[in-house]
Amino acid sequence: MNSVSLSAKPRRTRPSWWMRKALPWLHAAVDPSTADFWLQRINPTWSWQRSLARIVSISHPAQGYVSVVLRPNKHFRGFKAGQHTNLSAIIHGRRITRSYSFTQPPGADGLLHLTVRHVEGGVLSSHLCQHARVGDVLELSRPFGNMRLAADAQRHLLLAAGSGITPLAALLREWAKQPASARTAPLTLVYWARTQAELCFAAEFQALAASQPLFQFVPVLTHEANGQACAEHNQLSPELLTSLGVNTEDADVRTCGPSGFVQAVHSVCSKTRSVEAEGFTPPVVQADAQGPASVQVELRRSRKKLELSTNLSLLEALEQAGLQPKHGCRMGVCHTCVCVRHDGTTQNLHDGSLDAEMGREVRLCVSRARTDLTLDL
Ligand SMILES: Cc1cc2nc3c(=O)[nH]c(=O)nc-3n(C[C@H](O)[C@H](O)[C@H](O)COP(=O)(O)OP(=O)(O)OC[C@H]3O[C@@H](n4cnc5c(N)ncnc54)[C@H](O)[C@@H]3O)c2cc1C
Ligand code: FES
Questions:
Q1: Full set of structural domains in the chain with CATH
Q2: What whole-number distance in Å separates Cα of residue 301 and Cα of residue 376?
Q3: Pocket of ligand 2 contains residue 51 by CB under 6 Å
Q4: Binding site membership of 87 for ligand 2 (Cβ less than 6 Å)
């Protein structure tokens, strides 16, 4: 029998000498957007340097949600369960970027799984939920976020509200994939949704709880009969957790949801072993009668001077002035909007702290101006 050996010639694993010499030169000489223009005529996911991904399937894991599975091009370099990406799409000629979390841990097929909740009036979520089609191409940022399960936990507690289930689903699925011998600490998922129909992946979680004695799944519905039928009863509180049989003692808590929910977790779980949290909604800017309502902001690189409101984040104020600063999550997580503050004082919208140190980096989305400023923009 004739056989053909594919390994007769050793596979080249490193670029040759001339490629190593030529690549930096090529990178300097090629204009990425011109290269992308021509590359995408051949294949819409080809790009000189951007991570682009094609939608390969779409499903609806719950009412008001869409799940998309993406095949990224070679520029996308992997991620960890619990991380997020900034996803961009061109909608009515404008590039819109928002953050979404991976819902599955990395798999051998290289596919990426995202689940998006339809926000009424929301630009990108409406587009993805109503108009995304198999074959559409989206752009991804580098993955970001540090939420991981504690390696030495005695008890894992995951608290999710609404679309906050997404990164926690990836952590849970990674935990469930481990060999039984590696899963020593029990894991409880408490998951708040308005109605049963809005619980994502509920059948999967229930099946896992039935087969895996270390896993406890506790759905909590706030707008539907569920033992205790009313929204007030089912708000997060120490009493509710006790009544649901959820043990918080010595737990390592991972939580995700709207910022108000995440704040409630911090106060309810102040005595647990650790709390790592990610909020999906931006901090609210409290109007401040003490300081000036507007300040002068000099943008050094673009040589502009603007009068900006102090009652908006710097990102929103710059956008209101017609600029389009680079941004991603709009909540202080991804660091895409960072720029250097040469002069002036800014306030952190998460904790209210003031910062006047020259040459410090500032995240525009979670900072507001407190005095006249000079920014490296
Ligand atoms: C780290 C991170 C991970 C995330 N992961 C996920 C995830 O996995 N799944 C998920 O579903 N979400 C996730 N989010 C939230 C997501 O990034 C978006 O915020 C969400 O999808 C809404 O985006 P949008 O473009 O649809 O809404 P936006 O257009 O940003 O609108 C948000 C809100 O503002 C209102 N609004 C918009 N324009 C106006 C206007 N002109 N006037 C008045 N109101 C207006 C909208 O009605 C809406 O209520 C995550 C967020 C972060 C920070
Ligand atoms: S946009 Fe992500 S940190 Fe500001």
A1: 32-140 (2.40.30.10), 156-279 (3.40.50.80), 294-375 (3.10.20.30)
A2: 6
A3: no
A4: no
